[in-house]
Backbone:
């Protein structure tokens, strides 16, 4: 239990949960949907990756791709069920929230029904090696997790910044009504957004499965972590999510070191409540009003 | 058509050029068009137009004295009694029948153990008790979600915390069963205060997400701590109100009625919060309308804290009762699926009404208990129902009536707008904007006149006009020409002499002084009569096209 070990752990978890938080954040700010089916997408893509490793190949790239693709598929499913039918109806935000919760209920129970309650584990996709960096031992999965998540999230953010589709998504984030007026299809963009954020959930699922097992309800805890980070950073802000991920990761590492592992969630929620009481829209949320419509 | 003739009365007076008989068309009455226009073409179906209320007869002078609950102005039933002006009889209408349904439903629930089949008796009694407890929890939760409009998902966390706290106290300090709900209420109060604090600052989804997190926090905390029984899957062994010496059936029956009592208490609490001052204030200040509420002098923050505190005390009480009922509590009360099922109960029934909470609970508990053998499939089914309700219904099952009425009204107005005739008549929006309302009636009359004149145009009339554009004409042609002559100056046809007695041409007047007429066509007519007939044909053409 040395500081280096805890710190590296915290950084790894912060990267993975940060990925989830950015996915949730983008979903909320562009299509206005709080995707509480994210835990289901997470678990689903874990199972997708597991199926790929069982029937196709245990190659890391294949497993990772399968997880991301399944996640994107799950995102499309959620979009088709919870966004497309009701996005122009009254009370969309509340109904969307409840619809994603219903999808989460259906999906996790369906996974339980199909795959059974026994948890699965994925092959080590980054191989087995370790390096010793100034007394801190870094294993392959930690380095792999951090590098892959940072690379993919950076790639997604760059794509959003430079491509035509990314421009559409950013326009939706700024003002969905104006975006639809200038000819950006709300439904089409919704599908893009949900596919990308689903893919991010799939990525996080495969990366986290290097540490934890895959189970039907395994997506809940990561989703809640991701939600907490997204909340704390301010929904809709990528930069805030990064800052919040670092703060909460540090808090987790420090609490585990100073107080003990069972107090992690308590201190985390006290911290989140304190941050939100000071800044009700999160660290980077400067908007006075919540996103409407 | 053929064979009809018009006899020229001027012929006998020896007027020049007057023919004795002119071929014409049979008489057509302008009244027909009038009747056609003014009759309603809306299909009058015998049902569905008005709401149907049974009219109870009144009793002489007993119109005004009615039963009222003591100390209030409330009546048991909202009855409207009026004298029917046609029959001169007193008619009483029950405006709101919900109290009747409530009483019948609760009576049925109370008497249900008498008619339960003996083979299922135990299962049904247990299911009934579970239903009552969950209904009571959902009623308290509905106060927060429905009345206050705050999406708090931590209600089961409050119940669970109270249940765990009281179970622990009962096991370790030997707290008797009757103290458990009271202590639970105290724990609920503390918890309610804690979760009410963020609700002042946060809104909507921030709060929903935070409360999910709190729920998860409780789950993980109890799961990890030894004193809350992380090894046994829960905390068991609390004191119970059910005497262990009784036989199984009596125990179940007692539990059934005790839980029923808790549900009644929950209903009373809902009624007293939702239907009174606090509920009114909260419903007036939903999310995103706080600014308006504040401007009118409503202290919505205090109201929100109050509703949180009151409903949390209720939830804590139920939590203590839960511990005393089940002799303990398991971790599953904190699980995400419990929250989801609870939310499914509220959503299926309809958010914002007590009957929604109770009936939704009944549906979900029934599915949950009846299909227990199917495993995860029953939860999938419940999830599908929830998804369907969210996607298709606005207010759950109890909102169907209002939604259907709104849909029917929409369809009605669509059909009405399809029936509305255009062409001369003003559209409703246009009509309200017009200053000169006389114009509306003039347009309507003008349209009817044109409708009628279209029917009289025939080859005979055109031939008659061609022969003699000026002078006395047959009756239908005379009507037609009078209409044409009365047209406004604007765009009225006229003829100009290009070369007198040799060449004429048709022009249209501008209707404005100083603006020259425009030339309509290039055709040159050689005589005035021919030019008059040309104008006539154009006007007939325009009339038929209008």
Residues:
């Amino acid at each position: 239990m040395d500081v280096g070990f805890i710190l590296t752990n915290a950084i790894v978890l912060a990267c993975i949960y940060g990925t989830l938080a950015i996915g949730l954040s983008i979903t909320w700010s562009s299509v206005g949907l709080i995707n509480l089916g994210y835990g289901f997408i997470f678990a689903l893509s874990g199972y997708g990756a597991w199926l790929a490793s069982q029937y196709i190949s245990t190659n890391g790239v294949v497993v990772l791709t399968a997880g991301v693709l399944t996640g994107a598929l799950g995102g499309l499913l959620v979009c088709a069920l919870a966004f497309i039918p009701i996005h122009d109806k009254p009370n969309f935000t509340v109904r969307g929230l409840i619809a994603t919760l219903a999808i989460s209920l259906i999906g996790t129970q369906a996974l339980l029904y199909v795959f059974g309650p026994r948890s699965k584990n994925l092959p080590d996709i980054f191989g087995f090696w370790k390096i010793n960096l100034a007394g801190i031992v870094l294993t392959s999965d930690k380095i792999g997790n951090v590098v892959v998540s940072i690379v993919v999230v950076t790639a997604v953010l760059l794509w959003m910044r430079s491509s035509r589709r990314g421009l559409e998504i950013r326009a939706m984030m700024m003002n969905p009504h104006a975006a639809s007026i200038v000819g950006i299809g709300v439904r089409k963009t919704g599908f893009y957004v949900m596919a990308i954020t689903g893919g991010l959930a799939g990525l996080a699922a495969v990366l986290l499965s290097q540490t934890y097992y895959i189970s039907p309800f395994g997506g809940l805890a990561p989703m809640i972590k991701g939600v907490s980070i997204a909340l704390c950073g301010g929904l809709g802000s990528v930069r805030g999510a990064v800052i919040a991920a670092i703060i909460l990761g540090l808090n987790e590492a420090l609490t585990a070191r100073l107080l003990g592992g069972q107090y992690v969630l308590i201190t985390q929620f006290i911290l989140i409540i304190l941050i939100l009481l000071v800044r009700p829209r999160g660290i980077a949320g400067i908007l006075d009003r919540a996103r409407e419509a | 058509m053929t064979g009809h003739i018009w006899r020229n009365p001027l012929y006998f007076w020896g007027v020049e050029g007057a023919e004795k008989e002119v071929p014409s068309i049979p008489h057509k009455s302008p009244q027909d068009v009038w009747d056609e226009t003014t009759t309603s073409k809306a299909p009058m179906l015998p049902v569905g137009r008005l709401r149907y209320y049974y009219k109870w007869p009144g009793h002489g002078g007993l119109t005004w004295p009615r039963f009222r609950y003591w100390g209030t102005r409330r009546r048991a039933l909202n009855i409207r009694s009026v004298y029917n002006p046609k029959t001169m009889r007193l008619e009483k209408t029950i405006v709101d029948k919900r109290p009747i349904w409530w009483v019948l439903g609760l009576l049925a629930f109370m008497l249900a153990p008498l008619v339960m089949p003996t083979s299922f008796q135990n299962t049904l009694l247990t299911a009934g008790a579970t239903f009552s407890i969950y209904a009571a929890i959902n009623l308290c939760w509905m106060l927060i979600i429905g009345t206050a409009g705050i999406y708090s998902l931590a209600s089961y966390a409050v119940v669970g915390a109270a249940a765990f706290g009281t179970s622990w106290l009962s096991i370790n300090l030997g707290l008797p069963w009757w103290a458990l709900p009271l202590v639970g209420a105290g724990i609920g109060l503390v918890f309610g205060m804690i979760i009410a604090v963020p609700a002042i600052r946060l809104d909507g989804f921030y709060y929903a997400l935070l409360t999910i997190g709190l729920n998860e926090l409780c789950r993980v905390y109890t799961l990890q701590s030894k004193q809350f029984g992380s090894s046994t899957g829960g905390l068991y062994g609390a004191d119970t109100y059910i005497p262990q010496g009784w036989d199984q059936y009596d125990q179940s029956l007692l539990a059934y009625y005790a839980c029923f009592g808790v549900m009644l208490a929950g209903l009373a609490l809902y009624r007293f919060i939702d239907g009174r001052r606090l509920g009114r204030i909260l419903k007036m200040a939903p999310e995103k309308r706080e600014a308006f509420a504040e401007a009118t002098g409503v202290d919505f923050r205090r109201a929100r804290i109050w509703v949180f505190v009151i409903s949390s005390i209720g939830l804590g009480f139920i939590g203590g009762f839960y511990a005393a009922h089940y002799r303990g509590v398991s971790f599953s009360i904190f699980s995400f699926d419990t929250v989801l099922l609870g939310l499914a109960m509220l959503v299926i029934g309809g958010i914002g009404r007590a009957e929604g909470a109770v009936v939704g609970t009944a549906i979900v508990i029934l599915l949950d208990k009846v299909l227990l053998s199917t495993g995860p499939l029953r939860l999938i089914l419940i999830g599908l129902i929830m998804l369907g309700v969210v996607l298709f219904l606005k207010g759950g099952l109890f909102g169907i009536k209002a939604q259907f009425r709104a849909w029917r009204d929409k369809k009605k107005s669509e059909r009405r707008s399809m029936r509305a005739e255009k062409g001369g008549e003003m559209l409703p929006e246009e009509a309200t904007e017009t200053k000169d309302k006389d114009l509306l009636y003039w347009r309507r009359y003008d349209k009817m006149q044109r409708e009628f004149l279209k029917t009289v145009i025939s080859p005979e009339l055109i031939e008659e006009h061609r022969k003699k554009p000026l002078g006395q004409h047959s009756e239908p042609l005379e009507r037609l020409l009078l209409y044409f002559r009365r047209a406004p100056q604007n765009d009225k046809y006229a003829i100009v002499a290009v070369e007198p007695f040799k060449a004429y041409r048709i022009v249209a007047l501008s209707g404005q002084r100083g603006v020259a007429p425009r030339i309509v066509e290039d055709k040159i007519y050689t005589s005035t009569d021919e030019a008059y007939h040309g104008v006539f044909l154009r006007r007939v053409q325009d009339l038929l096209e209008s």
